[in-house]
Each structure stands twice: as structure tokens, then as C-alpha cells.
Amino acid sequence: MKYNVIFKLALIIIFYYLFSVGLQGQIIPASSNNNQGISWESIFTQGNAGKVNRGLVDQDGNMAVVFMPDSESRIHKINGNTGQLIWTKTITGTVGYGITEIRDAGRSDYIVSGGIGNTQERWVARLNGDNGDVMWDKTYTYTGGSNQYDAVRMTLVGSDGFIYGSGFVNGDEAATIFVVYGGQAMVMKINPSNGNEVWTHTNSATAYALAVVQSSAGDLYYGSKVFDSNLTLTKINTSGTELWTNTLTGTDVVIPYDLAITSNDVIYFGGHSGRTGTGEPFDYTCIKLDLNANMQWIKHYANPRGYSLEYIRNELYGIKVNNEAVYMFGGSGDESNSYSATNQPFESSDVWNGWVLITDLEGNILRSDLLCHDQANTATEYGDIFQNGYVVFNDTDAMGDTEVGVMKVDHGTLTSSTSDLYISSSRMSVFPNPTKDYFTIEGDFQDYTIQVVDISGKVYSDLSDQSSPIRIDLSSLPTGVYLVKVINEVNTKLTIKKIIKE
After folding, report:
1. Are 289 and 267 a contacting pair, CB within 8 Å?
2. Residue 122 and residue 148 in one domain
3. Distance of alpha carbon 197 from its chain centroid, rounded?
4. Among candidate residues 364, 398, 414, the one where a domain is terminated
5. 310 CB neighbour count, 10 Å cutoff
6. 385-422 b/e with 16+ CB inside 10 Å = b?
7. Engineered SS bond to 142: which of 38, 164, 169, 433, CB 3.0-4.6 Å?
8. pTM of the predicted model as reported, rounded to 2 decimal places
9. Is the CB of residue 115 less than 8 Å from the CB of residue 95?
């Protein structure tokens, strides 16, 4: 049937309601939006295509994104109101990993960072935000062999006005923003007016400073990892002195990608975790930390489209926070040739979708959004937030090549429930529950399809076009767990409620 939910989705949702997590510890969204709230979307096809690495929303409400064709860094500035390109800049012989806004005399300039040359030395440049002109361009050499590479993955502008960049030296791989091992974590301090290096800190106990954040007291914290071992968090001061490096026990399966910090100094460490499965699946992973690297919790999230946990890869690449929510940016898709499924209204499992997961500050899901350009592979590589919304920066083949796709999404005020997207408990009730024979469904069912199914997905009752209250007879069915599926015919949102037959 049009809205039939495959066996795996039913099974996953049952366990979500029973235990609030999936069978293997994943938290599964009860409902996900499909291309909802998009203000505009743009795909940029001019010039050489390359992987999107990072993007931002500046203080003027415009966007900037850095991506890397072969031996190039390309930067687009985009009008935040229309999605139209303002300017583009190409810097040859470099790989662009990061981009950060720096405010100067009422103008938003951009700090672009990455690597340069055949040996990939550390490289940072400052661009004039009005036109993309290079204001300064600096290479920072570090002693190493011909097969050892360096890079500045990302930067921030500190409370003292200086630029702090995190990355690695003497790594074992070039031209990739993904985790590089074999080297040392690196943080450097840079003068914003001319790009001169103030100091460089290295840490041989960790391989790669993937991201750096600053606390309200001015100290710097960066996340890192050693191959096949646990994540670490390191604290240094603005003079480059290391204060400590602490291990985050039990995180050896996590591949780290980003850090964010709240105004009251709570750190969120984001990445994705591998687990056993035929399709080598991953889950989003978010870790809440205090400033002493004490883990408050670690949570894993998966399966926003209801496909098989055995195959779907949920890969988190960016994390942002404000005073009310955590935003996780990444993609969800299947890369196995042995699996393919379709669950309306979403694209098939073979098509990558951007997945933006929004939780409260304790990791409870507020909203789950799937985003896709023109029914084509859309892998969200990074995102940034603004008041009541966010922007995603995507790799997409919607125009026939690996192009840069950008979407601006307005989600409105976040609440502890997404009741505006589907029937909420206040609008629908199922009782008695548990039951031995009959149960009743009451609510406002205009424009809804309702079905009762077992955990295999077999439909026992199709309750379309019936008015409330609806009485359902389960007396002839075996004891067990059944599902009431409620589908909004207007916006195709799906809600599932569990009922127990005794």
C-alpha cells in the first residue's frame, strides 16, 4: 500500500517507544520531515566542481562556503535573502578546508584555511568580504619528510581578536578533510592584520586537532583522536601552553569531526560511530562534556527514514549550538549493492539525503529534517545556524556532477514536541492500552490515513476516511505489540503509536 512501512521500520519504532532507543543503543526519530521549511535552495555549477568542506552564515545574514576541486580552493559568497551568488574566488595550488568570519569596520571578511603545495604545508588566507580579494596569504612550514603533510583544518577568531587555527603536522595523508593519523595535533595563533604566526602548539599524544573552541574564560579546547583509540580533549591557554590532555573513555569507535561550545561553557563533541552491520553502518554521535572533559552523556542517533539499521550510514560532519538546541549536520544513505528500499515519502535508501537532527541541550530530539536537491544524491557536509533556522552546505549530483548545493531552512520556534507536524497526544488518544480485546482511537482525523499493523508490517485494519471515535477489535489476534500508523495526507508526516494486546 502507498504508506506501507517495511518490517525494519516497524520493529525499530516499537523498540523506540518501549526503550527510547534502538536495538543497539541508537535513538531513532519518531518522525522526520522531508524537504520542509526550505526558504530557497541553490546549486552552483560554474567552474570546477569539488568536495564541500565547510560553510558559514555571517553577521550580515549572507553565506560563505569553501570547497576543493583538484589543487584549488574555491570560495562562494551567497546572498542570504535570495540564494544568488555574490562573488566567487579561486586560489590555485591549495586545498581549502575551513572558513571563518572575521568582522572588521562593519564588514565581514573571511579566513580561509587548509594546505598548500606538493608537501601540503599549513596555509591561511584572509579575503575581503565585499569582493573576495586576497588581503594576505600565508604559508607556514613545519619540518617533516616528503610523505608527511600539514594543514589548518579550521579557525576561530578569539575573544582577543587573534585567529586560532587547529589541524595537524606530519600527517600521513594529504588533500582530505577527513581524519588524518600518523602525525601530531596542532593549534596555532595568527595575527589577523597580516597573517604572521604568533606561536604553534603541537601535541604528540594526539594525531589531529579537528576543531577548537574557546571558553568564556579565554582558554582553548580542541578535540582529537589517536588511531584505533579513544577521543581526547586538550586544554591550552592563549599563550599556547598545554594544561592537560584527557581521554574520553569508551569512545574508540567514534570518528570525530566537530566541536561546539555554549555561552555557559558546555562542550558538544560530534562525529559518527561505526558498528557491526552488512553495509558497514554508522550512527550520529554526540557527546556532552564539561570544561574538565567529564562526559555528561554520549548518545547515538540513526535511521531517520526508517530503513534497515544493517545498511544505513548516518555520517555527522558538523555540530552547532545555541542556548536552546544542538544542531547536527550530516548525511544519511546506503552504499551497499545488496540492499535497496523505498519508504514514502522519502527518497530510496540508495539516494543520500542531508540529515539535520536538532535536539535540546540534553540530547532529546526536537526535530529531524531530511533534505534533498531534485531527488538526487545530497550529502550535507556542514551547516550553520541563524535565529529560527539553519543553512546546509551540500555535495550534490542534482545537476549531473558533484556540485555545491546550499539550502536555507526556516524551522520557526523549536519546542519540546513537533506536534505541529503530526497528530500529537493531545489530538489523538488510544485506549485502553494495554487491551485484551477492543481499543478505541479518538481524535481529529481529517486528512489522515490510519492503519493497524503487526510488527511484520501486515495490515489488519485500514481506517481511512472514518470519523472519530473508531473502535478496533483485536480479540482474534495473538498477544503482542501492534502499531497504529497515522499518516497526514497533506504533508505526508508519519506517526506511529504502540498498543499492547494482552
Report:
1. yes
2. yes
3. 32
4. 414
5. 17
6. bbeeebbbbbbbbbbeebbbbbbbbebeebeeebeebb
7. 169
8. 0.81
9. yes
